[in-house]
Design a protein that fits this description.
- The complex is a heterodimer of chains A (113) and B (116).
- Chain A is mainly beta and 113 residues long.
- Chain A contains no helices and 11 strands.
- Chain A has strands spanning 5-7, 10-13, 19-24, 31-38, 42-50, 53-57, 64-68, 74-78, 87-94, 103-104, 108-112.
- In chain A, a hairpin with an 8-residue loop joins strand 9 (87-94) and strand 10.
- Chain A starts with a strand and ends with a strand.
- Helices cover 0% and strands 53% of the residues of chain B.
- In chain B, the strands form 2 sheets. In chain B, strands 2, 4, 5, 9, 10 and 11 form a 6-stranded mixed beta sheet that branches. Chain B has a 5-stranded antiparallel beta sheet with strand order 1-3-8-7-6, with no helix packed on it.
- The termini of chain B are far apart.
- The mean pLDDT of chain B is 94.
- The interface between A and B is medium-sized, with 27 and 28 residues.
Chain lengths: 113, 116
């Protein structure tokens, strides 16, 4: 089975722009969670989508949003980028949404200038 | 919300020695505790996990123990090898009836260095 994939792998944006990141889960998995990883804050949960519905949301501003499509692929969007949004954005997929085992993608490295 | 503390932040051991990393969690409703290994520039990889109905789980050189009363869980690596060098993260989640879904709260990570 193919693993979790994320595109693009690297992005450079400037402040004020918006960005969309994509995640394709493992085939058959219906849950996709997003995490932000930074040296200062570590790994922080953004949100989880299951069967096209947002299941959980972390403590991030409304500039961070996401969605999930019928094929379980998920996108996250960050609007009005700030310098502090520079981070590695990881998605993780799992079969169900009940403390299920999560498998991470390689991440998208976002740099905001 | 849930808070997970992880110690130590760095750990240096000699090849062949054992390594122990400890985590404590604050929410007694947490019921799932995975450990991830992240090598530089790579994705976090699940190495072992334990659920709240189990006290200990072992997979070859890796073991995890859980003390629900103390809200404490630990990762044990025996016979360490240079390829064990990486950052290790503990995490906790509370799915099921508490509605936590798959949200993982991570510890701050432990940089393990295995020296020859």
């Amino acid at each position: 089975k193919a693993g979790v994939t994320q595109t693009p792998r690297y992005l450079i944006k400037t402040r004020g722009q918006q960005v969309t990141l994509s995640c394709s889960p493992i085939s058959g998995h219906r849950s996709v969670s997003w995490y932000q990883q930074t040296p200062g804050q570590g790994l922080q949960f953004l949100f989880e989508y299951f069967s096209e519905t947002q299941r959980n949301k972390g403590n991030f501003p409304g500039r961070f949003s996401g969605r999930q499509f019928s094929n379980s692929r998920s996108e996250m969007n960050v609007s009005t980028l700030e310098l502090g949004d520079s981070a590695l954005y990881l998605c993780a997929s799992s079969f169900s949404t009940d403390s299920d085992t999560q498998y991470f993608g390689p991440g998208t490295r976002l740099t905001v200038l | 919300g849930e808070n997970v503390e992880q110690h130590p932040s760095t750990l240096s051991v000699q090849e062949g020695d054992s390594a122990v990393i400890k985590c404590t969690y604050s929410d007694s409703a947490s019921n799932y505790f995975p450990w991830y290994k992240q090598e530089l520039g790579k994705r976090p990889q699940l190495i072992i996990d334990i659920r709240s109905n189990v006290g200990e789980k072992k997979d070859q050189r890796i073991a995890v123990t859980l003390n629900k009363t103390a809200k404490h869980f630990s990762l044990h690596i025996t016979e360490t090898q240079p390829e064990d060098s990486a950052v290790y993260f503990c995490a906790a989640s509370k799915g099921g009836l508490t509605g936590g879904g798959n949200k993982l709260t991570f510890g701050t990570g432990t940089q393990l260095k295995v020296e020859l």
